[in-house]
Amino acid sequence: MVKLKKKLNVIRPTLRHKKIYFMLEFTKEYSNNLSNLFLKNYQNIFGLFSLVNANITLMKSTKNTAIVRINKDYKDSFLTSIFYLKQDLGLVYVTKQVSTLKSLE
Amino acid sequence: MKNTFDFVMDDLIEKYSIEDLEETFTKLNIKNIYVFREISKKEDLEKDFILPKSKILKLKKAYLLKEPSLAHFYKKKELFLVISQSLKNNTVISTSKNIPFLYNPLSDKLIFDEQNARSCFQHKVKVIFNYNLLRDKPLQNKYLKQNLFIVNLLKIHLVDFIFASFAKTKEDLVSRDVLFSLLKNFDLEESFILKILSKGMVDNKW
Predict the structure, then answer these.
(1) Do A80 and B177 touch (CB under 8 A)?
(2) Nearest CA-CA distance, residue B190 and chain A, Å
(3) What element of type H or E holds A61?
(4) Domain span holding position A89
(5) How far apart are CA A90 and CA A30, in angstroms?
(6) Domains within chain B, CATH numbers bracketed
(7) Do A94 and B175 touch (CB under 8 A)?
(8) Tell me, what's the ipTM?
(9) Are the C-beta atoms of A67 and A97 separated by less than 8 Å?
(10) Does residue A10 belong to any structural domain of this protein?
(11) pLDDT in tens for each of the 206 residues of chain B?
């Protein structure tokens, strides 16, 4: 009799994607869905497959700041996509780039 | 990144206080700033402009000449660029011995070819791109396509080039990290990009 799996095994650390956290500050207040803005803008520039692999997640945000998590291999692509957010966010400062969320707080 | 620089217009200096600019440029990791005044007539060359003093930033005056013919009347010591934006100007500037920088070889159609690149190499003319043209619609995609082609040409013919903001407002500015990542999409190596972003590219002092 086959035993049915009820829980997924823990993924080995070597198989997990390495992540990087960005602390962003911007001059224009953005009142709409900031996460959607980052995702749609990235997809517009680099396409669907790159978006899916990049795994962009908005961890925290205020009116003028955001903490974004992204897969390390797609760091340059994400920074390039920020270049095109002038109209929505104004001047964007990349204040910090760290590998753990704790070092941002 | 050390010894970073940017080219901005004098409108930016007039709009914001020096303390505000010091904070902004420090956060963006830019230290050397060349402030440009646009010159469209010979009479404008006689007018001088004064820069505010700053302990943190290194501000320098520079001039942006609208026509190649104005270069004959330019006798100041400060840096000057000549605006191109046309096929005729591209040819005149790239073959000139007196003009060190060609600003903006982009237009509605492609106006910069291999011949221009070769001339730039022979006469040691550096090409300057305004990266804000790549952000502003509706010609964004056209300019990007031309830019990618021209950068490749300049790379092959060993011509130096620079990317700068020519910012009139704070929103036109971009952090050096973002610019570094953007330039990676132009098929340039990291060491080469660091060279483009350093002040040595402007004054040849490495």
Answers:
(1) no
(2) 12
(3) strand A57-61
(4) 16-100
(5) 10
(6) 5-203 (3.20.20.140)
(7) yes
(8) 0.85
(9) no
(10) no
(11) 778 899 999 999 999 999 999 999 998 888 899 999 999 888 888 888 888 888 888 999 999 999 888 888 888 888 889 998 888 888 888 888 888 899 999 988 889 989 999 999 999 999 999 999 998 877 788 899 999 999 999 999 999 999 999 999 999 999 999 999 999 999 999 999 999 988 888 887 66
